[in-house]
Design brief:
Elements: H1 9-12, H2 24-36, E1 43-45, E2 55-60, E3 63-85, E4 88-105, E5 111-117, H3 118-132
Antiparallel strand pairs: 1-2, 2-3, 3-4, 4-5
Length: 136
């Protein structure tokens, strides 16, 4: 189900709780909402649709990748950039890494590990900040 984008900075600044099997519907809603915003958004965290759980959805090429309980386990190649967000107005400067090695669970809660580079790595880092309650 497509959800409304949350713009409440107090809610968005709260760290998200771990996702569990009861959160799979929320993960599907996040997927659907990102897909509906494909023209103006490349990634979303669950708190952006009002769900304080550690779930993100990111565009990985043409596909949407759902990550439950994602963690950055290694980052390399720092650089400065400017980013926007559907939940916030304007652009903000931030530090990102060109490569991130990620650990997460898929929708069956099977563990996954993969290294992402370039723009996909940047998207993931932005969404991880959302899960931490960091507003970019």
């Amino acid at each position: 189900m497509i959800k409304t984008i949350i713009r409440d900075t107090f809610f968005l600044s709260q760290p998200s709780l771990p996702a569990g099997p009861d959160d799979l519907e929320a993960a599907r809603d996040l997927y659907d909402t990102l897909d509906a915003h494909r023209e103006d958004c490349v990634g979303m965290a669950a708190n952006m649709i009002g769900i304080g759980r550690r779930i993100i959805a990111v565009r990985d090429g043409e596909a949407i990748l759902l990550m439950l309980n994602p963690e950055i386990i290694k980052a390399a190649g720092p650089y400065r950039t400017s980013e926007g967000c559907l939940s916030l107005d304007g652009q903000r400067e931030t530090l990102r890494y060109r490569s991130v090695k990620m650990k997460w669970q898929d929708e069956a809660f099977k563990p996954k590990i993969r290294t992402f580079t370039g723009f996909t790595a940047q998207i993931i880092q932005h969404e991880i900040d959302h899960l931490r309650g960091v507003l970019i």
